[in-house]
From TrEMBL:
InterPro entries: HATPase_C_sf, Sensor_HK_TwoCompSys, Sig_transdc_His_kin_sub3_dim/P. Signal peptide: none annotated. Residues 1-12 have a biased composition (Basic and acidic residues). The chain crosses the membrane at residues 34-55, 61-79, 95-114, 134-153, 160-178. GO terms for molecular function: phosphorelay sensor kinase activity; protein dimerization activity. It holds the Pfam family HisKA_3. This is Two-component sensor histidine kinase.
Length: 423
């Protein structure tokens, strides 16, 4: 039974168990490893430059040992701060490690003076990595300006002071940028598997939709005509033979439809589906009025409207006791509208079957994919309840020849071999 705007889900849930992930190949992890290696080498290189400056400065051996130990601790902290997801650690832990890094950045300045000032660049980068943007960027600027103090104490020139501040800020930016880049490379690489799974899922849903929409009408037609043949054999054997030929044709078409699924409906046409509808409804003794007034329009829109008409005929045969059906197709500006209506509808009927179908949902997905819309529902009138399916799709630039241009076709029961046209 066709129900107003009752669209079932486009696909059933996957009943399969959890699928094991394929083993990761070493080359699949190359990009994250390269990004991480570049980050670690850059941090080590900055640390080595600071170490060389300290070793070049005359000082007691114990001071040198303290400087090396502090440098190793700061480097370890920075590597931890630059790990992916470090900014999602508990706030207390982040503040603790930042506090230790800040202490090891500023306290050694009392001994090593400006030679230790380059370590502030690591602290600036860690602030950007671990704290919210507004707080992080504010403290980043404070760290850069703080290097003015040791320069003033040592009576350094303005150029040297500017150099220390600028190099600190630059080191912070490089540290932050390489750390974020390494994390993003890892995230993007990890997302490839999810994207591939989503693509496979989408293709499975498309295949299921296409198989449902293509075969539903054909199988319903075969069932209907087989029942008709069964009734005709005793009294009208010749007509039964004709219907058998038609059943064979529909069966061959259904087989071709299975192959057509891979092409995604691209070779379906509204003309073919109207012709099939005439044959099927005639066999079911359902009166059909067809009115098609179309200009040339796009092949993709034509295929989608063909799918809409096929699903409408499937629903008519399965869920109604129709005696009359109308098919109207027309241009409305840059839009093509297809309207299918039939009587014989019980507005209170609900199909209790769990396999009642998802054809209307499939149509909604298919029509919206090309920028159109579809609406379905029951309309009460003086002659009873009518089910109406309306689909509107954009007319694309790719041109096809529309069927029955400018003609109005009237089909009456028992007149399958003779179609009349009128203005």
């Amino acid at each position: 039974m066709q129900n107003k705007n009752r669209f079932d889900r486009a696909g059933d849930e996957d009943g399969e168990g959890a699928r094991p992930s394929p083993p990761k190949r070493s080359r699949d992890l190359l990009a994250p490893r390269v990004a991480r290696t570049i980050l670690v080498m850059a941090l080590i290189s900055y640390s080595v430059v600071i170490l060389l400056n300290i070793l070049d400065t005359p000082m007691p051996t114990r001071h040198t040992a303290v400087a090396i130990a502090s440098l190793v601790v700061v480097l370890a902290l920075q590597l931890r701060h630059s790990e992916p997801g470090a900014n999602r650690a508990p706030l207390r832990r982040r503040l603790l490690t930042l506090g230790v890094q800040a202490a090891l950045t500023y306290l050694p300045l009392l001994i090593f003076r400006a030679e230790w000032g380059a370590m502030a660049g690591f602290l600036a980068g860690s602030l950007l990595l671990l704290l919210p943007p507004r707080v992080g960027w504010s403290l980043y600027a404070v760290v850069g300006v703080s290097l003015v103090v040791p320069s003033l104490i040592e009576h350094r020139s303005v150029l040297v002071t500017v150099y220390l501040c600028q190099s600190t800020l630059l080191t912070g930016l490089v540290t932050y940028g390489l750390s974020r880049l390494s994390e993003l490379v890892g995230e993007v690489h990890a997302a490839r598997g999810e994207l591939a799974h989503m693509a496979v899922t989408e293709e499975r849903l498309r295949f299921a939709r296409d198989l449902h929409d293509l075969l539903g009408f054909g199988l319903s037609t075969i069932t209907l005509k087989a029942e008709l043949v069964h009734r005709l054999i005793p009294g009208h054997p010749q007509r039964a033979m004709d219907e058998i030929q038609d059943v064979l044709r529909v069966a061959r078409d259904s087989l071709a439809d299975v192959r057509r699924v891979a092409r995604g409906f691209q070779d379906m046409s509204l003309e073919q589906e109207i012709s099939s509808a005439r044959s099927v409804l005639s066999a079911a003794d359902i009166e059909l009025d067809v009115k098609v007034e179309l200009r040339p329009f796009g092949a993709r829109s034509d295929a989608v409207l063909a799918a809409v008409l096929r699903e409408a005929m499937t629903n008519l045969l399965r869920h109604s006791k129709a005696g009359h059906c109308t098919i109207d197709a027309e241009h409305l500006g840059e839009t093509v509208r297809l309207t299918v209506a039939n009587d014989g509808v019980d507005s209170g009927y609900r199909d209790p079957s769990p396999d009642s179908g998802s054809g209307l949902a499939n149509l909604g997905i298919r029509v919206r994919a090309i920028g159109g819309r579809v609406d379905a529902g029951c309309v009460k009138g003086t002659k009873g309840t009518t089910f109406r399916l309306v689909a509107e799709v954009p007319a694309h630039s790719e041109v096809v020849q529309p069927p029955f241009l400018g003609e109005k076709l009237i089909l009456r029961p028992g007149s399958a071999s003779r179609i009349t046209a009128s203005d």
